[in-house]
């Protein structure tokens, strides 16, 4: 004979098992319905991608300390700041590629941000549209950049010249590293000064 209390315990356990099974079935059914709803409401069109446009990259060449313009096609966003960041990112990708004429590691990820601000001291109506570009580089890029006046200057000047070639309203450029002022790029090129893009031209190296 099975004791009465064991029958009662067995009945309770059976009811609990049935209840848990029913609850699990409900949860599974709800999850399945949510999955189907997500599939029916998901967009069927591909996400918008910025159209490819031509950009001028003024690339540095260590062989003769020159700045040489190159035309590249790349997707460019409409926002000017994001546009500047994309262009400079491609420039640094060139430097990080094998066989680069100005080898510097880091690539596009070395450009943390580019801010476009009204240029200080714009007095005449003609210069009221002039902009100051603040280029924020990553600390990793600065730490790994080859040290030397010529190589550091070429990097800085190529960035300035590339900005001028693609955004003519940018007349001044300043540099930050990890969002903070920094005396030099890698011990030589001055990052405390404001660079005038009008003073940087292609096919020109530092000291020429």
Give the structure's gist in a few sentences.
Helix content is 38%, strand content 22%.
Helices and strands in order:
Blueprint lengths: L3 H38 L10 E10 L4 E10 L4 H17 L14 E8 L12 E7 L1 H6 L4 H18 L3 E8 L17 E2 L12
Parallel strand pairs: 4-5
Antiparallel strand pairs: 1-2, 3-4, 5-6
Helix pairs in contact: 2-4
Fold and architecture overview:
- By secondary structure, the protein is α+β, with helices and mostly antiparallel strands.
- The chain has 2 domains: 7-37; 52-199, no CATH class.
- Helices cover 38% and strands 22% of the residues.
- The chain contains 4 helices and 6 strands.
- Strands 3-4-5-6 form a 4-stranded mixed beta sheet. The chain has a two-stranded antiparallel sheet with strand order 1-2.
- A hairpin with a 4-residue loop joins strand 1 (52-61) and strand 2.
- Helix 2 (80-96) packs antiparallel against helix 4 (149-166).
- The longest helix is centred in the first third of the chain and has 38 residues, at 4-41.
- It is elongated.
Number of strands: 6
Largest sheet: number of strands, sense, barrel closure: 4 strands, mixed
Give the assembly state of these chains. single chain
User: How much strand content do the residues show?
Assistant: 15-25%
Indicate the structural class: alpha+beta
Q: What is the typical, i.e. mean, pLDDT?
A: 85
Between the first and last Cα atoms, what is the distance in angstroms? Answer: 108 Å
Number of helices: 4
Order of helices and strands: HEEHEEHHEE
